[in-house]
Amino acid sequence: MSKPSVSDLKKTIAKDITREGKFLPNDFQERVKARFYRRLEEQSHRIDRESVFESEELMTEMAGTPRVMKWIQDPRFTRWFLDEEYTRDSIMSLQNKAISTINGILDDEGTYASDKLKAARMLLELGEQFPNKKEIRFIDDTLNNMSENEVSDEAKKIRAKLAQLGK
Question: Is 71 in contact with 95 (CB distance < 8 Å)?
């Protein structure tokens, strides 16, 4: 008996997943969905959301491919495609997985202290408890070198000059 190829294994996995009623999108379908919802958001001022799903022409235009009309006939694809929260849910799932991994690192007695500190920092960053410091940079380098009070004083001077010009 020969060893199964990678493509055979992928097909077997895809069949198992589809038997469970889940849809496994390919990369192109993922991009089509992203394009569709981006365009739908960009055109929200001129296109009624509901009308897009009722019009083959609008669906094709927003998706950027006529293939979407063939795919939409598969109820599993349709469920996946219409689920706007899919990406957010996936991100939250991955965050939970990351938190579990970090907890495992923190709980493992064999982990070096420095690695535990790194894991703790990652956990705090995930929880937005340890935000990255953001620096404000001005176009004018002289302002970048001033203290906050000096910048405030400079702004007051500029406002005064503008007020005089407005008279």
Answer: no
Q: How would DSSP label each residue in the chain?
A: -PPPPHHHHHHHHHHHHHHTT-----HHHHHHHHHHHHHHHHTTTTS-HHHHHH-HHHHHHHHTSTHHHHHTTSHHHHHHHH-TTHHHHHHHHHHHHHHHHHHHHHH-TTS-HHHHHHHHHHHHHHTTSSPPP-----SSHHHHTS-HHHHHHHHHHHHHHHHHHT-
pLDDT in tens, 15-44: 655 555 677 889 999 999 999 989 988 888
The per-residue pLDDT for 29 is 94
CB 14 within 8 A of CB 24: yes
CA Rg, the chain, in Å? 27
Instruction: Evaluate whether 24 touches 17 at the Cβ level (below 8 Å).
Output: yes
Q: Using alpha carbons, select from 67, 57, 60 the residue that is nearest to residue 36.
A: 60
Closest CA to 30 of 86, 93, 91: 86
